[in-house]
Amino acid sequence: MYNYLDREIAALNAGGRLLVCVMREWVNAAQQHRCPVGAVNSAFHELGVAEAAMPFHRIMAMLAVHGSRQLGFAPPCGGRIAEGEAIILSFIAQQADDHAGQNAQLFEALVGAERAPAMQEMTKHLGMLLIDQGLLPAEPAYQQ
């Protein structure tokens, strides 16, 4: 998570930028009592990963309804990655390595023991769909 936190969005790869954009739009739409699904589906379609929208929506809905604490998301125009965005990016990015299963306790801390397996499964599903399209978030490039 700390590899993403407070970093410039411009330093992210295309998959990371997509996820930050749709996270922010999803949260913004929900706060304005608009349909979050309708607000972000076109972004997934434009990059050819329409099937990734469903697990993304489930992750966000689970956090919104069952989250043990409120995560911080930046406004759509923000230039840096906020805490909630960094957490989600890191979970999804870890789907490419062998340590993704070690996040079970973190999922429990976020949504409780009852919902943690579903959250982990949706995160894995989303990560695999993004891997298939070459859009898995990578750690931001360091800028000097």
TrEMBL record:
- Give the source's domain of life in one word: Bacteria
Protein name (database record): Uncharacterized protein
Q: What is the scientific name of the source organism?
A: Altericroceibacterium endophyticum
| Lineage of the organism | Bacteria, Pseudomonadati, Pseudomonadota, Alphaproteobacteria, Sphingomonadales
